[in-house]
Specification:
Length: 319
Amino acid sequence: MTELRMQLRVRAVCYEAEGINSYELVDPKEAELPPFTAGAHVDVHLPGNVIRQYSLCNDPRERHRYVVAVLRETAGRGGSQTMHRDVRAGDLLAVSAPRNNFPLAETAARHLLIAGGIGVTPLVAMLHRLQSIGADFTLHYCTRAPEKTAFAGALAALIRAGRVIVHHDYGNPANGLDVAKLLARHAPGTHLYCCGPSGLMAAVKSAAADWPAGTLHFEYFAAPAVARDPAADGEFQVRLASSGRLIAIPKDKSILETLREHWLSIESSCEAGTCGTCQTRYLDGEPDHRDYVLTDEDQKKFLMVCVSRAKSAILTLEL
Ligand code: FES
């Protein structure tokens, strides 16, 4: 399936905090954009075949624009630097339809949100939604210092109301939010959402390890560093359900790469198991799931072919 790709006009670029700009994207003819739900992201296609995923941070009720915020990362892979250096108001950008791997559990009794730095972006959209449905929520927003705190102005009323609590650590994590203390006890009906740097995500995951299944929601910007020996990966075969054809997946190539070598067209974006673009249904066999987006329930039906492999000798895909 070919993904919808829109040419959107950059209507405004705004300074949000030190190193963080927001980009307002609209249809050049002012048409309505495909709807999105809180927690969704879009793929932004940059020059040089670079694709980056950015969470939408505006109110999901808005149909006339998407707003993304981008932290300029000097040690990153270059996408954020391109956005900051080259993208100007008036430019056109190729943008995918929104996709949501980080939805709100809207029927939860209470929502606890934890953001680290630029990880606040999907959570800002969630705050819009939670307010519009009258939900009970608190956001803990961890940043290094006031000048690095995006959306502080937009969040001011919620900060005054105690619904958003900002924590500055000034470079010393000991001064920051005590995640272990905050999450030591699970209040019944509470769902937890976290997006931020890998250290914060790991701390939150560990502190909430005893929370009930299905109450934890994480959005990864990048795949966490996992010590894995590629030499330990074995070979297996993929069967295409439509034709019965068997394709061998070598130990040093992903399912996605191999299928493309056999002229099968599969959309991808992050190719790191974090965006959900390459989600594929499997019908038989046992996958070795290595993604960061599918829930336990979803993993019973789907796998991300950019990173996941198979524990069984044959994996049948709905292709
Ligand atoms: Fe992003 Fe596979 S391409 S999860």
